[in-house]
């Protein structure tokens, strides 16, 4: 019998919760509305989830992972590129939003529709392939069965390789 995605993800949640696996926080960029535009944007907390590769598994929802930043104050320093300056500004926005320095914050995550997946529709990296819930872990990769993917990712989260 092929398990559906919701059943597989609920079993993953239970296993992660029982193991007290570490969670990472979700954030959202908020741009304050002020007349002069003097207030800088900040990233505010929007929950937490277990990161399983390209999936973020929350208590009641599953998300496709987006961008990741580590909160921190960039201080005053020169930047080698505009991209480095932009990353430092995003890290500072996380700190302004209340995240601790060095804390991992997930941005641009997208909620996945498991009901649509059950109807055979693709949702983020998830799809039904020959009736089997599957995941595409990279844009260049093919789909692999979700059950095996979750098993591997949970094992890596609970027992990371030495030096990771």
Primary descriptors:
164 residues, alpha+beta, 7-stranded mixed beta sheet, 3-stranded antiparallel beta sheet, 4 helices
Give the low-confidence spans: none
Total E-strand runs: 10
Estimated helix fraction? 25-40%
Q: Please give the order of strands in the largest beta sheet.
A: 5-6-1-2-3-4-7
Biggest sheet: strands, sense, closure? 7 strands, mixed
Helix/strand structural class: alpha+beta
Q: How many distinct folded domains?
A: 1
Amino- and carboxy-terminal Cα gap: 36 Å
Whole-number mean pLDDT: 90
Number of helices: 4
* Helix-strand string: HEEEEEHEEHEEEH
Strand content: 25-35%
Over all CA atoms, what is the radius of gyration? 18 Å
In one word, what is the shape? elongated
Give an overview of the whole structure.
- The chain is α+β, with helices and mostly antiparallel strands and 164 residues long.
- It has one domain (5-158).
- Helix content is 29%, strand content 27%.
- It has four helices and ten strands; from the N terminus they run αβββββαββαβββα.
- A seven-stranded mixed beta sheet has the order 5-6-1-2-3-4-7.
- A hairpin with a 4-residue loop joins strand 3 (55-57) and strand 4.
- Helix 1 runs parallel beside helix 4 (146-158).
- It starts with a helix and ends in a 6-residue tail after the last helix.
- The mean pLDDT is 90.
Summarize the structure.
The protein has helices spanning 5-18, 82-96, 114-118, 146-158, and strands at residues 24-30, 42-52, 55-57, 62-64, 67-70, 104-107, 110-111, 126-129, 132-135, 144-145.
């Amino acid at each position: 019998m092929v398990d559906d995605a919701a059943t597989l993800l609920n079993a993953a949640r239970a296993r992660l919760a029982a193991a007290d696996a570490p969670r990472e926080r979700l954030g959202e960029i908020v741009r304050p509305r002020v007349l002069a535009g003097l207030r800088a944007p900040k990233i505010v907390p929007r929950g937490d989830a277990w990161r399983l590769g390209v999936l973020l598994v929350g208590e009641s929802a599953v998300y496709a992972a987006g961008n990741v930043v580590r909160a921190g104050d960039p201080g005053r320093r020169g930047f080698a590129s505009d991209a480095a300056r932009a990353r430092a500004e995003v890290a500072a926005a996380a700190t302004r939003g209340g995240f601790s320095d060095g804390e991992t914050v997930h941005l641009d995550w997208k909620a996945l529709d498991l009901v649509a997946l059950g109807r055979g529709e693709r949702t983020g990296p998830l799809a039904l392939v020959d009736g089997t819930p599957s995941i595409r872990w990279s844009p260049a990769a093919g789909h692999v069965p979700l059950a095996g993917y979750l098993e591997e990712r949970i094992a890596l989260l609970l027992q990371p390789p030495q030096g990771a």
